[in-house]
Design goal:
Blueprint: H1 2-9, H2 13-36, H3 39-72, H4 76-100, H5 108-138, H6 144-181, H7 185-188, H8 192-207
Helix pairs in contact: 3-4, 3-5, 4-5, 4-6, 5-6, 5-8, 6-8
């Protein structure tokens, strides 16, 4: 563009430099105005709403399968946890719709952290299905000593998954309750439960488990 300007107007050096400066400033101002005028945040919110809806549907579909599998494996505590996660997903959607939909302030940190923790709970439930199948296979082994050792190890794994989900459920529920009850935006960043939820989400995202 600068070359075309110079050729068309037969401009002098200082005029070309001025034009180049104005053109550069105009180009750089676009992303700054995009952010400053709030378009970036609105686009992020719109994307997040669509993403949340899709991930919510995907989670529910997976939960229905896991519920059936855990029921067939007689893992009753796992079945209960499926119901608990269903309730938490409903509460999460309600918080988003009643507290943040249509608001200029949308806590992306909470929405992303909560979804990450929900996904980890879902993965733990899926792992319970695998453990349940393993326990069923162990019961048919001929070597009783090896059978007992492997059964104990798998049962310990199952208990760990159940316990971890209890901790995650507490973090999700407490945060949702506090956020639903905040009276002003300024209170949001000071929520201890939110800080804890974000910390948990970061841990499970990096290590794949609650405690490394």
């Amino acid at each position: 563009m600068v070359g075309l300007f110079a050729w068309w107007f037969q401009a002098t050096g200082w005029l070309i430099g001025l034009y180049a400066l104005i053109a550069s400033a105009s180009t750089l101002s676009v992303p700054l105005l995009y952010r400053f005028l709030g378009y970036k945040e609105r686009d992020e919110i719109a994307w997040l709403q669509v993403h949340n809806l899709r991930s919510q549907r995907a989670l529910i579909t997976r939960l229905e399968w896991v519920h059936q599998a855990l029921s067939e494996l007689n893992i009753s505590e796992g079945v209960k946890q499926v119901g608990t996660l269903m309730d938490i997903l409903d509460a999460y959607r309600a918080v988003v719709e009643t507290r943040f939909a249509g608001k200029t302030f949308t806590p992306l940190t909470y929405l992303n952290a909560a979804r990450s923790v929900q996904e980890h709970v879902m993965q733990n439930l899926t792992d319970m299905v695998a453990v349940g199948h393993s326990l069923a296979g162990i019961s048919h082994q001929q070597d009783h000593q090896d059978q007992a050792e492997r059964h104990q190890a798998q049962q310990h794994r199952l208990n760990d998954l159940l316990q971890e989900n209890h901790i995650l459920f507490t973090a999700l529920t407490e945060t949702a309750v506090e956020i639903a009850n905040i009276r002003s935006v300024s209170q949001f960043e000071r929520l201890d439960t939110l800080t804890r939820l974000i910390s948990i989400a970061q841990t499970v995202n990096h290590t794949g488990k609650l405690s490394s």
